[in-house]
Amino acid sequence: MDASIPDLLRLLVVPALGWAALRDLRTRRVPNGLWRPLVLLGVVLVVWEGYVAFGTPYVFQRFAIRVAFSILFVVPLAYAFWYIGGFGGADARAFMTLAVLYPTYPSYELLGYSLPVVETALGVFSLTILTNTVILGLAYPLVLGAQNALSREFSVVMFVGRRVPVGELTDTHGSLLETHDGFTRDGLDLDALRMYLRWRGLTLADLRENRELRDPDTLPDDPNDPTGGAVVADGSGDPWGAAAFLDDIEGSAYGTTPADLREGLDLIVDSEDVWVTPGVPFIIPLFVGLLVALTGGDVLFWVMDALGLVPA
């Protein structure tokens, strides 16, 4: 593969992002420390290429504009998506990392082919990765809706969720899409549910078989991880001990409130199956989007060009 040394070094992000995608699929957790060395590598490579281009004013100007666009537009855009809840924290950090690593189009030669095949006029490669990822991400709701339709699970949430037996919730990622009052966008996070069960040392079957566990007087005196502190129940004012649980872990259960936890637990013990939004691990389409960008290039630009929407 003929390429510059900086472009070859950039390929280190491929196995790193592949590992992150696999871990995100299995655990929905990606260590923050993964991104720091990649960002540092990106900064070094940008300085390296900037130094090489500095001797040619026109080349340096184009390079500087693309670097500035990637860092000053794509990075804030990724942060904005995270801020409004469109991305998870790891997703946003991954996009920001790629904005630093790939501000301009790389160039590779493989088996006589020049890659990426399709380049945009703007020439900001991180934007190509972003658009490819969004296109791939938009396909997921369509697949989810089709699966639900084939299973005859028709609902207003059939494009964003799936029906899951309650007994499988402890092995499912995502959050509830409903309460006793109907569908909701702010249902109980299933990670918080698992934390609560471990804290009490119970299983879902325990909760469903013994309704007396709703009484906060049944809370353990010595809770299990992730709390490790003693809890003193104060009686009937805290059904399920939801507030006691969150107080004991300093309220850090993925934004879960006592009301969210109570509503989720009430629904779970009364239902056989529930609607769950799977919480798409966005790093997976990001990884695929990167691979497509490195080989085929910009999918959106290719489609627009094929439709005659790109100025000659």
Detailed description of the structure:
The chain has 2 domains: 163 residues, Four Helix Bundle (Hemerythrin (Met), subunit A), CATH 1.20.120; 116 residues, no CATH class. Helix 4 runs antiparallel to helix 5. With 312 residues, the chain is mostly helical. The two termini are 31 Å apart. About 4% of the residues have low confidence. It contains 12 helices and 7 strands. The strands form 3 sheets. Strands 3-7-4 form a 3-stranded antiparallel beta sheet. Strands 1-2 form a two-stranded antiparallel ribbon. It has a two-stranded antiparallel sheet with strand order 5-6. The relative contact order is 0.14. Keywords: Cell membrane, Cell projection, Cilium, Flagellum, Hydrolase, Membrane, Transmembrane, Transmembrane helix. This is Prepilin/preflagellin peptidase. One of its GO terms (cellular component) is plasma membrane. GO terms for molecular function: aspartic-type endopeptidase activity. InterPro entries: Preflagellin_Peptidase, Preflagellin_peptidase_C, Prepilin_IV_endopep_pep.
